[in-house]
Amino acid sequence: MKSLPFKTNFKRNFTIVLTCCLIGIGLITLGKFNAALSEEPGTPISPWTKSVLAKTLAPHVESNTLPKTLNMSIDGIDQRVQFEYTIDVEMQEFTDRLMKRARPDYGALVAVDATTGEILTMSSYSHEKYTKNLGLVASFPAASIFKVVTAAAALEMKKVKPETTFTLTGRSHTLYKKDVIGTPEHRWSKTMSITDAFAKSTNTLFGKLGLYFVGADYLQSFANLFGFNQNIYADFHVPKSIMTLNENDDWAVVEAASGYNTQTTLSPLHGALLAASVSNDGIMMEPFLVKTMFDDKDQILYQSKPKTFSKPISPKTSQDLKILMGATIRSGTSRKAFRKIINRKLYADASFGGKTGSLKGKSPEGKTDWFVGYMEHNGRRIAIASVFVHKNIWRIRSSQMASSYFEHFMYRSITENKQVATR
Q1: What whole-number distance in Å separates Cα of residue 162 and Cα of residue 89?
Q2: Which residue, 104, 221, 307, 385, has most beta carbons within 10 Å?
Q3: Running DSSP on this structure, what letter comes out for residue 67?
Q4: Is 372 helix (H, G, I), strand (E, B) or coil?
């Protein structure tokens, strides 16, 4: 068989190579196009991730600033980038004004959307010009806020129900071994349900619950599921809240379960996530501050999306916890702070839940006063943590701050809906 002339061979080979290249490019382009289409809404198509943002934003968030623009190196090229944050500007300004008016020695309020993890408010105030963002400080004693975890563990394990009763001795806000371990019944004994004990923050009952019903192993496990001792992923650095137990020390279990120790610590951000997981049917979402990041040509470099962090409890347990937390608002330690809004017809379709706690802490030093809770209204589920530290003068309670925040949020929502309806 005769070979073709060189010129003809070259043309044919060139044509074959060119055709293969074009087909290859087409397949690659089609693959990228299909991959882009298959991505969920909000998925970033750039190399930027929460971990990258966390390193970049961490020092700014920790110093209580949110820069609108920053210089960044992206793929080796220096660029000016801009951020769109999740912060609700009106609610942030409202909270900052309340903080300045209250003038606590130290104070913080963090509010999140329970269903998405978006941070709506992160307010921090210090009478002593404390430079750190107190919303992220994880050295506050958790105090009775930890009763949420103890109750969740007992309910999830089906050891108790909200109506389960205990026979107790001693006062609600004290904790003595004689009232917890091997306590005989006598004429001063009283009967109290889990719901009433939670609402009134009765230490003795929760000490017994932790020691005799939950146990050290499960108490530690549920604490971990709720984010204690864990890295909570976000687009900024989240310090760890700490809860550790000596399994061989029964009294340590009692103190931890009732929140009557300073070893268990909690940040306001984490406190808001605890309340959010109850409101959100037992699902704790990852918190985030950045909605979108753009380059200097307004091209999207990063776009956030909600992501689950943990599922510590079932929807049934979350409903039972709402019974307990609702009782705190209606008849428990927060009843005075919430009396105004729960009795107003304007907010009749809203539901609330909460837990208070107080204990003397060392960092910052002073009496730590907590409220964590949630509000469900007009299709929104908002979770909040408010904490104040007072050295000498108590100017405001954390539950009062939370109540004011919820009322302003609801009133604004109702007003906006009326304006839309009249257009």
Answers
A1: 38
A2: 385
A3: -
A4: strand
* Maximum alpha-carbon separation in the chain: 118
CA dihedral 259, 265, 268, 272 (to 10 degrees): -60
Between β-strands 265-266 and 284-285, what pairing exists: parallel, antiparallel or unpaired?
unpaired
What pLDDT score does 83 carry?
94
Give the long-range contacts of residues 157-163, CB within 8 A, separation 24 or more: 157/213, 157/214, 157/218, 159/209, 159/213, 159/214, 160/194, 160/209, 160/213, 161/194, 161/320, 162/193, 162/194, 162/195, 162/320, 162/323, 162/324, 163/193, 163/194, 163/195
Does the pLDDT of residue 41 top 90, yes or no?
no
What sign for the dihedral angle of Cα 338, 341, 343, 348?
negative
pLDDT at 54: 86
Q: What is the token pair recorded at 156?
A: 């999830």
Q: How far apart are CA 314 and CA 147, in angstroms?
A: 17
